[in-house]
Design goal:
Glutamine Phosphoribosylpyrophosphate, subunit 1, domain 1, 7-stranded antiparallel β-sheet, binds 6-diazenyl-5-OXO-L-norleucine
Length: about 550
């Protein structure tokens, strides 16, 4: 006689579970401050940046300090031997974007990563000296500081010098990741370094980097020439000679960071300001937002919402593979890709009940115009904002430490398409637009982004994660705008990703219930669970004008401010 009520109870519990806003736990706020904030991947870098803001530094000053500090305390991704992108919005509304992406050396050739049979040799663009592009980070920091900085450069670099000289305690995460890469670092570097000073590292061990401190002092004393000329340049070129790499004195002398016109677009009354090519991030993010703009969102990670987002993702990544590359070498159809009508048309064959197989999707025809990176977000006391993503590409880059100079060289050359249609380390495919050429910049997914509402700053956001960067930023923005998450909740919440090829949804555990995942499977989606996706560090301006930090719990990421 109890059967019917028990069954009813069970069914209603199931329905309740299904409809319960999984989002409630993601509404609790993170750190809140009144005036200024830094959120970065390491507490010591955050602390150094906040000190600059307390002295009245511009957000760009703090960004320079954080970039150099991360080059010491976050060796897997922070760097002077890599590159990145910076998006700036000043309190008066002026916007800028700075490209300090690495470039292919002048001696690079289109087929340099193919063997005699024309097949890709993946290790060649991933480890060792041939994997390294000409670094851009130091030129980038000086270009940013020359235009927008306020405090003396020597003041801004000093915390990094002190950390490298005096040493700093490794966090558990850093000790583990360094141990995981020590063998490769020993194999691909031609000389010992501070990183290889111990057989293994444990949490709390002090990492001292005197050679890096000396390099940083040369940069402090001679400016960018302290890196691109003189002793540091000699050390880089000598390292190339020992390891069979291509970077020459000419490459280093020629390197310049480039100010580019930021990508701008709107999403439901918000303005999104992003990085233009050679990053795919800004364009792809806006394409994604435009592709879902007409959609009524229902419940966080509901099958209907996820399905729509995935269908947008597979179409946008197909475009990315075909149309995006270094704009100095390839005619990127930027206005065409950013046209809301184009993106709406791309979704015209969207079927709410069925996944569209990626094999049946090709890049569109937009109107033509004639695992490791790190992101940080800064807002200063005047409301100027910096969104900066920087990388060596893979953790510890090429695993080559420049002998005597103490820093890792990137393995960014792997971001080129070594051969059309052959996936790179992130499974991304590309074509002619992103083929290797001397002096060309490789296509990136980095998506440092600033969002405004009306004339006011709303959000500063970005993340590492290779190909998943764009979709992580996409989800973080939607988590706040569509699902009312706090900044911290939006960053903490599990993420998923689709990139056209391979044709499957990659997802973090906790992304959805069994019930929702079956509903997605019924629409024809395939899945693969994976370890963490991205490390988003973001700042939200609350309605009362105070700042809320979202520091990613997937890492040692820390918000600080006042
Ligand atoms: O520029 C890019 O798109 C890649 N080199 C970024 C690499 C990355 O995010 C690795 N981090 N997990």
């Amino acid at each position: 006689m109890f059967r019917l009520p028990v069954a009813l109870l069970l069914i209603s519990a199931l329905i309740l579970l299904h409809c319960r806003p999984a989002s409630a736990e993601y509404q609790a706020p993170g750190l809140i401050t009144d005036q200024a904030m830094v959120v970065s991947a390491h507490p010591l870098a955050t602390e150094a940046g906040v000190a600059v803001l307390r002295e009245g530094g511009h957000a760009v000053d703090a960004a320079v300090t954080v970039q150099f500090a991360l080059a010491v305390v976050l060796p897997w991704a922070g760097n002077i031997g890599g590159g990145g992108f910076m998006v700036v919005r000043e309190a008066d509304g002026d916007i800028y974007s700075l490209d300090f992406r690495e470039k292919a050396p002048l001696a690079a050739t289109r087929d340099m990563y193919l063997d005699s049979l024309g097949e890709v040799v993946p290790a060649r663009s991933w480890r060792g000296h041939l994997a390294a592009g000409v670094p851009g980070s130091v030129a980038g920091m000086f270009a940013a500081h020359d235009s927008l900085g306020r405090l003396p450069m020597a003041r801004l670099i000093q915390p990094a010098i002190d950390l490298a000289e005096g040493g700093f305690p490794l966090t558990r995460l850093e000790a583990e990741s360094l141990n995981g890469r020590l063998e490769a670092i020993r194999t691909y570097s031609t000389q010992p370094s501070g990183y290889t000073a111990q057989q293994t590292w444990a949490e709390g061990d002090i990492l001292r980097l005197p050679a890096l401190a000396a390099t940083l002092r040369r940069i402090r004393d001679a400016g960018a020439a302290g890196f691109y000329a003189g002793e540091t340049a000699d050390l880089i070129v000598a390292e190339m000679a020992r390891g069979g790499g291509l970077i020459s004195h000419q490459d280093l002398l020629d390197y310049e960071a480039v100010w580019r016109t930021p990508v701008e677009g709107s999403y439901r009354g918000y303005k999104v300001i992003g990085m233009p090519p050679p990053s795919s991030g800004g364009i792809a993010l806006l394409q994604l937002l435009q592709s879902v703009e007409d959609h009524g969102f229902s419940r966080w990670h509901s099958p209907a919402d996820v399905h729509r987002m995935v269908e947008a993702e597979r179409r946008v990544y197909a475009d990315r593979a075909q149309h995006l590359g270094d704009p100095d070498y390839w005619p990127v159809p930027r206005p065409g890709l950013l046209d809301p009508a184009y993106n709406r048309a791309r979704m015209a064959d969207f079927d709410p009940r069925r996944a569209t197989p990626s094999d049946s999707i090709a890049a569109g025809n937009p109107a033509a115009e004639s695992e490791q990176t790190t992101h940080f977000s800064v807002v200063d006391a005047e409301g100027n904002a910096v969104s900066l993503t920087t990388t060596l590409n893979g953790g510890y880059g090429s695993c080559v430490v420049v002998g005597g100079a103490g820093f890792f060289l990137n393995n960014e050359m792997d971001d080129f398409s070594a051969k059309p249609g052959v996936p790179n380390a992130y499974g991304l495919v590309g074509a002619e637009a992103n083929a290797v050429a001397p002096g060309k910049r490789m296509l990136s997914s980095m998506t440092p982004t600033i969002v405004t509402r009306g004339d006011s700053l709303f959000m500063v956001v970005g993340t590492p994660g290779g190909s998943t960067i764009i979709t992580s930023v996409f989800q973080t923005i939607l988590n706040v705008v569509e699902y009312d998450f706090s900044m911290q909740g939006a960053v903490s919440a599990p993420r998923f990703h689709h990139q056209w090829r391979p044709d499957l949804i990659q997802y973090e555990s906790g992304s959805w219930s069994e019930l929702d995942s079956s509903a997605l499977a019924r629409r024809g989606h395939a899945f693969r669970s994976r370890s963490s996706i991205g490390r988003v560090d973001a700042i939200l301006v609350r309605p009362d004008g105070r700042l809320e930090g979202g520091a990613d719990p997937r890492g040692d990421d820390t918000a600080g401010g006042f």
